[in-house]
Amino acid sequence: MAIPTFNAIGFCAHYSKQGDWAFDFALQLSQKYNVQLNVFHFLQDPYDPGYTKPKHLSRSELNKMAIAEEKKLRLYYDKRAGEYLNIGFRECYEDSWTELHRCLKISEFQLLILGYPKKDAIFVRKPIEEFANDFISPVILIGPNNPEQLCLNNQAALVSFELGISNDKFNICGIKQKE
In the Cβ-directed half-sphere of 176, how many Cα atoms lie within 13 Å? Predict the structure, then answer.
């Protein structure tokens, strides 16, 4: 099997302990492979199944909201990143599924890291493990109970050895997790 070429790792922001674990994991991989870490944040929260973009806001108000959210994002994750400078931030207006596919197509990431906040969590209006399995690129979920709990989709499992993740350290998404 060919060794994957990564020039960027994607992380979807989530302000939770699982989100922090996922960011730390993504940061460690980015540092290990000396690749860009791209942090994505969505105005329409992909973890909230009922949230929709406010329709009553003008484009100007939406832009102000996005600027405020990006500032919050940068302050929070810049502090967590410490001295690591190879990090980018993107505040996304579009539907998260569409935007993640677009970013994948233009090579803003080749591996996606997500916090797994709780059992039966929703991401982009479907169970998070189903999202991971349906997504075309390697996806790693971190959590929900501790930072060593890794759930990999099949694409990530295929490259787990190259990522330095031994087979006994992860579950395949959709199969009963190790506690």
Answer: 1
Give domain status of residue 102, yes or no. yes
- How high is the pLDDT of residue 29? 94
Q: Please count the structural domains in the chain.
A: 1
For residue 106, how many other CB atoms are within 10 A of its CB?
8
Candidates 108, 148, 31; CA nearest to 140 is 148
Has residue 141 been placed in a domain? no
Say how far apart CA 79 and CA 111 lie, in whole Å.
Answer: 23
Residue 139, pLDDT > 90, answer yes
124 vs 98, more confident: 124
Share of the chain above pLDDT 70, in %: 90
Total residue length of the chain:
179
Q: How does DSSP classify residue 75?
A: H
Q: Is residue 156 part of a domain?
A: no
